[in-house]
Specification:
The chain is α/β, with parallel strands linked by helices. 43% of the residues lie in helices and 11% in strands. The chain has two domains: 176 residues, 3-Layer(aba) Sandwich (Rossmann fold); 105 residues, Helicase, Ruva Protein, domain 3 (Orthogonal Bundle), CATH 1.10.8. Bound molecules: adenosine-5'-triphosphate (ATP) and magnesium ion (MG).
Amino acid sequence: MKEAPSKLKLEDLTTSNPAMARCLQLAALAAKSDVPVVLLGETGTGKTLLAHAIHNSSARARRPFIAFNASAISDTLLESQLFGHERGAFTGAQQSLKGKFELAHGGTIFLDEISEMSPLAQVKILRVLEYGEFERLGSERMLKTNARIICASNCSLRERVRLAKFREDLYHRLNGLTLLIPPLRERLEELPALIAAELKAAGLSEGKKITSIHPEAMDRLLRHQWRGNLRELSHTVRTMTLFCNGSVVLPEHVIFSPDLQNDRDSAAVPKAASTLVDNGEERDRDTDLSLDGAIQRHVRSVYAQANHNQRRAAKLLGISRSTLARYLKSLPKSETKQSEK
Ligand SMILES: Nc1ncnc2c1ncn2[C@@H]1O[C@H](COP(=O)(O)OP(=O)(O)OP(=O)(O)O)[C@@H](O)[C@H]1O
Ligand SMILES: [Mg+2]
């Protein structure tokens, strides 16, 4: 990707998939208006990236884009985060603070993981949406906001309403334009172009010139379920780049994240289908998303499973023993028991 996501515009996003094309057309409509937008899609499909792109392509592009993840904040901090506070408003409020709605005035407020918001957060946000007005904590001065709202959710809001987890009145307020971003496994025709772009970027940052992908390696990539969607793709390509020492990506260089092992051949119901219902558990496990961490965890766990037998572990990992040996050698010695079995 050429531009940092925060600078990306809709015109920078292209697709060869009809469902994604429809989604981008709606995004272009969204950029021309101020209606609230709901972005629905599994984790890693690009909701945050698309929210930025809509903002950057709108008349508000020069004004702030303020992201707020209401699921990650306690109810006690919620109001001061959303609406700000005056000095002395509560114990510890040593300075006045602008809230997200005030900061986003004239721009866009991005409410992420909206389906996970507490009931209190839902009430507070509904009130701002209804009246366009709010007060900082500790102040009676009414402030106005005309921030444009973009929300994201990786589960169906309608379903959350049905389960009485999400207010119906808020749902209707937010539901101006809903964009459903298809999961990567439903837009596999895009894979070769996406991989090529990621490979170019990863190659540049690693100082490697990788020119092609072995057909078997491509086959592995095409057969994968991509539960982590574009985020997983990006991690996988970076792993490939690290392991690849020549100009061609070989099958043994394609290593998938252990938490997301999901070959299409697997008989299990794809977990991704359920992530649109609830993926809280999965997110908890994924808090360390660093690529190095993921590779290390995976290799360590397989190596332990194989009883520290390099030949067996290499087979399980689908890489050659020498590649595994090189990798293990590069790990801190105290943490990985190395064996010549
Ligand atoms: N169309 C795209 N082309 C290339 N890379 C993309 C695209 N969409 C998303 N990505 C990349 O995939 C990763 C995940 O994207 P993003 O954070 O926007 O997903 P998300 O749906 O918001 O995920 P989450 O639900 O976990 O918040 C980012 O690194 C982003 O740059
Ligand atoms: Mg996101």
